[in-house]
Design goal:
By secondary structure, the protein is α+β, with helices and mostly antiparallel strands. It has two domains: about 150 residues, no CATH class; about 80 residues, no CATH class. The strands form three sheets. Strands 1-5-6-3-2 form a five-stranded mixed β-sheet. It has a three-stranded mixed β-sheet with strand order 8-10-9, covered by helices on one side. A two-stranded antiparallel sheet has the order 4-7. A hairpin with a 4-residue loop joins strand 9 and strand 10. It is globular, with a radius of gyration of 21 Å. The relative contact order is 0.17.
Length: about 230
């Protein structure tokens, strides 16, 4: 999974193309998982308190930041969806761990400026501005209160027995949480939204079996490569 990051304290004056970074990460996410227009679960129910939110204010991140922070392996590995800037952490007596790599967040707004081209009637024009800032996950911050995950809402239906049997026999590591479904080769696990977010048992089973299939495909690919290497 592509992960653009920046180490705290490192000086880097090279210009960055924020639009290119965002586009690249979204493309990788779409290639690794189910495109959002085919998503058979309710994102609102899937995210809940596990959606990326600010550790200092409790506000949920919106727009592109939801995607950027949601794709960070830090949140999935640690189970902590909280994020904060270095200053926000310091202001509360917390300390970002030395050597921690920050994750970029983005602030977007439209501003009105002088139109020097003369193409507008009033001499003004509106331009979009995209600025970046660095965020750190709660697992990277010392002194922050422990994160207590909320309870999971029960689904109004039972998991299909056949799907449960296949999942059990596959020996795959399945983690539940967040609003995305994917197989992560780097951590060798399947990530699934909570069952309560799916519209039906069939929808849940289809996504789960799809991700198990992705797991099997990776294992076959690795086995074939090893066989080819031994045969050459």
């Amino acid at each position: 999974m592509a992960h653009f990051s920046k180490r705290h304290g490192a000086g880097d004056n090279a210009p960055r193309d924020h639009y290119a970074e965002i586009t690249a990460q979204i493309i990788v996410a779409l290639e690794e998982g189910t495109p959002p227009w085919r998503r058979p679960w309710d994102v609102g129910k899937a995210g809940g308190q596990m959606m990326p939110h600010n550790a200092a204010t409790g506000a949920r991140y919106r727009g592109i930041n939801t995607i950027m922070l949601g794709m960070s392996p830090l949140a999935f590995i640690s189970g902590d969806p909280r994020w904060a800037t270095y200053k926000q952490a310091a202001d509360r007596g917390w300390q970002v761990r030395k050597g921690s790599r920050g994750t970029p967040g983005f602030f977007y707004k439209k501003i009105e400026v002088e139109d020097r081209t003369g193409s507008s009637d009033d001499g003004r024009k509106v331009v979009p501005v995209l600025r970046s800032f660095t965020l750190f996950n709660g697992s990277q911050i010392d002194g922050i209160p422990p994160y207590i995950a909320p309870g999971v809402e029960e689904a109004p239906w039972r998991e299909p027995e056949s799907a449960a049997t296949i999942a059990r026999n596959s020996k795959a590591v399945i983690r539940v949480g967040g609003d995305r479904a994917f197989f992560s080769p780097s951590t060798d696990h399947i990530q699934m939204p909570p069952t309560c977010a799916f519209r039906s048992p069939g929808a849940y089973a289809s996504v789960l079996l799809h991700e198990i299939g992705n797991t099997a495909s990776v294992l076959v690919f690795v086995s074939v490569n090893r066989w080819a290497a031994r045969s050459s």
